[in-house]
Amino acid sequence: MELTLEKIKQPVAAEIEQFEKHFKKAVRSNVALLDKIMFYIVKSKGKQMRPIFVFLCAKAAGEVTEKTHIAASLIELLHTTSLVHDDVVDESLERRGFFSINALWKNKIAVLVGDYLLAQGLLLAINNEEFKLLKIVSKAVKEMSQGELLQIEKARRLDIQESIYFEIIRQKTASLISAACEAGSASSGASPEICEQFRIFGEHVGIAFQIKDDLFDYGVQDVGKPLGIDIKEKKMTLPLIYALQQTDREQRRHIINLIKNKSKNKKAVKEVIEFVHNNGGIEYATSRMHEYCQKAVEVLHGVSNNEAAGSLEQMIQYVTEREK
User: What is the pTM of this model?
Assistant: First the structure.
């Protein structure tokens, strides 16, 4: 039976439906241009995986409360902020099959829209005096920024080690999923010890999620982004890092030279992709992804065994089996 998000979120389906109304309200503005852009953002929203994590973790740890809705809105506002700003940084003109905000309204407006979304999130927490949730989310904002900057710094020299790669993805991707899981459990009134376990669970899932994303770059599936885009952007991901470790100095120098100087050349990108396939990069990255999934399952089994926890376990499976 194929796993879908619709099936996975079943234990919190009613709460998610209610949250969507909350979120539309949270982004509403009196400025006509901003309201038009917010309507576009809501219309082109993705799978909403992070709010699903918030609600499932709240139910796995206890009960969904009004605080859970605030936590989910906070996480989604922050996530949307990061996507809008990322598209500006990456000069990306498309997101989930829709034009990006910067493609339609230019960079200046996109940056200001991102700032507005972040401010809305901060005010949502402050107005409801949810300072614990604000602390969790603010930490994630800081980590995401650090992860992006660390990746940019290392991309210049192309000397990234596996340990640095894991630090980048822990900060850049896993920090927001771990914040969603920690905030969800905290919103249910769970103890700090339990919340910390949910944070660790989210971190493991987030790392597995990013490795899966990096594997798409070397695959044959149409996942909404061009094949080899990470190579073109000179991003050193796990399949490539491992493959480079398996070869001799001359071949390593040749591949790094292709990435450094010919990353826009289709033939060069194809050669790098083939090199990664031929040197075990795909198999190694896949095994590390499953390793983090297993770690996440073990943490989850230690804190919860109800229906919502069952859905969280399915979510781990979904992360590794998804096709986009």
Answer: 0.89
What are the structure tokens assigned to 49, written together?
């995986």
Alpha carbons 278 and 87: distance in angstroms, whole number: 32
Q: Give the tens place of pLDDT for each residue, 112-167.
A: 888 888 888 888 889 989 999 999 999 999 999 899 888 888 777 777 788 999 99
Q: Where are the alpha helices (DSSP H) in the chain?
A: 5-8, 13-26, 32-43, 49-61, 66-89, 101-127, 131-157, 162-169, 175-187, 192-216, 229-232, 238-245, 249-262, 266-278, 281-303, 307-321
Find the helix packing angle between 249-262 and 238-245, rounded to 10°.
150
Q: How far apart are the first and last CA of the chain?
A: 18
Name 117's Cβ contacts closer than 8 Å, sequence gap at least 6.
Answer: 27, 77, 78, 80, 81, 84
User: What is the distance between the alpha carbons of residues 12 and 116, in angstroms, rounded to a whole number?
Assistant: 29
Residue 11 carries which DSSP code? G
How many structural domains comprise the chain? 1
**What are the CA-CA distances from residue 151 to residues 90, 167, 200, 230 (Å)?**
13, 10, 22, 12
Q: What is the pLDDT of residues 78-123, one digit of tens each?
A: 888 887 777 777 777 776 667 777 777 888 888 888 888 888 888 8
Residue 7 lies in a domain: no
- 58/162 Cα distance (integer angstroms): 33
Within-domain flag for 2: no
Instruction: Answer for the pair 259, 234: CB distance below 8 angstroms, yes or no.
Output: yes
In a domain, 4, yes or no: no
Closest of 43, 30, 60, 17 to residue 187, by C-alpha: 60
Residue 319 counted as domain residue? no
User: In sequence order, what are the residues at sequence separation of 6 or more whose Cβ sits closer than 8 angstroms to the Cβ of residue 38?
Assistant: 27, 28, 29
| Closest listed residue to residue 276, CA positions, set 316, 323, 241 | 241
